[in-house]
Predict the structure.
Amino acid sequence: MSFYKDYINEIEERKNQGLNPKPIDGAELLSEIIAQIKDTAHADRAESLQLFIYNVLPGTTSAAGVKAKFLKEIILGEAVVSEITPAFAFELLSHMKGGPSIEVLLDLALGQDLAIAQEAAKVLKTQVYLYDADTNRLKEAFEKGNAIAKEILESYAKAEFFTKLPEVDEKIEVVTFIAGEGDISTDLLSPGNQAHSRADRELHGLCMITPEAQQAIKDLQAQHPGKKVMLIAEKGTMGVGSSRMSGVNNVALWTGKQASPYVPFVNIAPIVAGTNGISPIFLTTVDVTGGIGIDLKNWVKKVDENGNVMRNEKDEPILEEVYSVATGTVLTINTKTKKLYNGDQELIDISKALTPQKMEFIKAGGSYAIVFGKKIQTFAANVLGVDAPVVFAPSKEISIEGQGLTAVEKIFNRNAVGVTKGKVLHAGSDVRVEVNIVGSQDTTGLMTAQELEAMAATVISPIVDGAYQSGCHTASVWDKKAQANIPKLMKFMNDFGLITARDPKGEYHAMTDVIHKVLNDITVDEWAIIIGGDSHTRMSKGVAFGADSGTVALALATGEASMPIPESVKVTFKGSMKEHMDFRDVVHATQAQMLQQFGGENVFQGRIIEVHIGTLLADQAFTFTDWTAEMKAKASICISQDETLIESLEIAKSRIQIMIDKGMENRNHVLQGLIDRANKRIEEIRSGAKPALTPDANAKYYAEVVVDLDIIDQPMIADPDVNNEDVSKRYTHDTIRELSFYGGDKKVDLGFVGSCMVHKDDLKIVSQMLKNIEKQTGSVKFNAPLVVAAPTYNIIDELKAEGDWEYLQKYSGFEFSDLLPKNNARTEYENIMYLERPGCNLCMGNQEKAAKGDTVMATSTRLFQGRVVEDSERKKGESLLASTPVVVLSAILGRIPTMEEYKASVEGINLTKFTPISTK
């Protein structure tokens, strides 16, 4: 068997797709390539040299280990390759980032040959991806009097790996490209249905926006050599929706610069912008790559002579253009004045995009290098017994005397590291925090694994309480793509120290539960900080931040994350829910009432929503915290009552125990540790030693929203408004309409009850409604398909025990089988109820989809163009989002129901209810 011949065959196949050779990550292939390099007469030697030098993934890949070892042989003279001198070998090592390359460099630096040691030291002084095993070697050598070790440590203490980098250009010229009007979803930049190719960066890059847009970008680059193309969301926010590193990677691939000449298709430094700024999650990802994200504010609300906002016939604010960013406009970013210019004309202050910390990310080529650099500087100074000089921008510490703390401020103060001792910090402070729970999902997990390899990490940080690798995004269809990618991912993550949804050894039953539900269960402390590889990482215990695969990797490797303490918006409730209303309607009404109260301004965007729904258990409360992603909030915190929190923790314990009983516990006994932590927290609450988290009475909020339950009298539907004349208002989550708007005659082609937005009670509602309808009419007939996907296996087990699952089986025309999983995505649907495997199903859009052009009524979270349903030639696809009873009835009727029909269908049914409590 020849790995090289197989690789050459793959190269030929990729040529037919217009692709270059896939970067090499395997030791077997590279070993064969090295053997051919050593054979000076080999016919493939020249090609092998090119592949060895320019096409090997760095970090801790097995190929990187082989490459580093061979370079060491060249440097020591044990192998001679005329094209790779020892000096060039050192240069190649300097681009390999960490892991085996650092091990080799330390071997050489601490070796007997002084000349080689000095050259190795020069390279080591530029490296920052060192872990305990590496730093321990340096420390031991220093303590034994090794002069080279001392020299390296002194360089680290001065942070010369950063100070000797080139300064950021004062002027960066850009040429604009409007990627779309309105909010730009990450689905446009990295479509969910192409998730399988994300780890193959060049291939995945072909799916960004459209081929026409890609050509337009290339044309702009040809017309404006030396200028960077800036992608823009005109009249919208850039990067809303899912937390996709692959989206930023694609933008960087087309518009950024190559991070290293020896590592293919890893580009950095993209520049993006939006009229309404950049989505918080997406902006973090831009920072990871050393890019720039600009809030343009080039359209503003028009005001009359009295300063009042002018409105159109729909009572919407009229916008007027302040300055143009039409495609092809040349602008200048000045990093000194921190302004955006068109020629000599100053357009806007962009200092928020160029803070001292962000300028460091730009200079270093990304935020990872700064995080690791600070750690290595601190380590070196401690070993040397000196004070580290102030090199990096000091963290902003804002402390306001006499002002209390919001819930998120309390959590950040408890988890902060490296801050002034005894100082209480408020919103706006820059902090590094310890992370308690980390989640990686399966369509971004391969990229997280790549990031971990690139930063040379091999084991999870010991300060992380628990971490989980999901299998929910590939649960629906076990096709060849999933079979090729997911087992490899599960093994990597299991070895790294995560609890994994699928057993690499195949011993326990695959658990395809939706990641957010699992993370909500394994979060056993409302003071926790959670980082997860999905925008819906928004637990109803603790504060959770959806993140890109790189930030997830950093949290796994270091147990830390860095960010400013966000401002908070307080949400409380008054009045009482009507009997026929479901809590999902309250969630949608919150968004509608907020926009109404603040004149169309989304005060949630980029902030923490502190929601006071303390009487709801964690499962039900998650329906609210989950939707805060659609509200464009940075995160959310649920303020719970003591007894409610205790009950939620008891439920969480029971579900963690089920995971243990399934055989999912790992060698570190992570799951048992979480149960122990839950028991400790319950005892703290019961004893009164530490009651449930609450904000201080004198805490300060950016805004306060009071939701009036009394005026919520109809189901509230989030509508993508696909035919709005103003393109910028399509596919947002801000158009919330009452049921009566549709007049009872809008056709529905498919209903979907599933995703992370539903809980066990939603599935019981489905069962109860079907029983009601059969009782009223004598039978249950679907006039549109109804797809039902429980988010977790636990829910199905509980429904079976309570007798509801048998009713769902009775009315269904299809039930999933774990023994015979689907290996092809469904493309056609009958008018029956489908009981699908637990997981994301239609919500993700990477496997199952509705038929093109369908009108879908769903309980899910996403209504972006092409996500759940694509357009057809006859009509636009649209995904309307509503409560479970509205979805079920719409599928039965084949249309959106009238209020009378809706009320009759839910009579006597236990809808999810909520009773507000006083926060005074």
Q: What stands out?
A: The first strand starts at residue 171 and ends at 181. The chain has a mean pLDDT of 93. The longest helix spans residues 642-662.
